[in-house]
User: Fold this.
Amino acid sequence: MRTTTAAFAVTLAASLALAGCEKAVQATGFIPTNVRMKQDGDLARAWTAKDLASMKFGKVVVKPAETTRPGAYGDLTEEQLENCRRILTEQLTAAFASMGTGGDRTLVVRASITEIKPNKPLLNVAPQTQLLKRGYGYAAGEMYATDGEGGPVVAAFMCTTDTARIGTGKLSETGTAEQAAGDWAKAFRDLFSSK
Assistant:
């Protein structure tokens, strides 16, 4: 009886561990390594230069988002990844649209979706199939901004987003990444709000 209980506990723990990420994915090197990221909650890290002043930027250029880590996106197709990149680029462009009315400098924003564990929609249809979160995935992204095209990094942000139990993101393979894009863009833009 004791062996059966122990085996069940190990199986349950393994299932929960594989269900989602629930901890921040490590930096991949997309953000320059000299940037010292600081923990910002459980699943995010952020950094801003001490002399960051958003009012000195008169223009914002958002580069197309990237997916640069082969094998880090499950079995998603190139079309699905292109859609995720497009959504992240659009969300960043919208978030930074209100910035860029001040000075003579150009802020260049770069972003990468560094990992996606796709959701399994068929496992997320009914509440009882969601119990162990077996169909849940996660998405991780990194972004940074430079003062000009080749200038120094002025801000950086990285975040891992788990699939939410309540919401529609769990109903498609890329739903978590698509919904996370807006949250990441807003959080990154917020780094400039108080500067």
Q: What stands out?
A: The chain has one domain: 2-193.
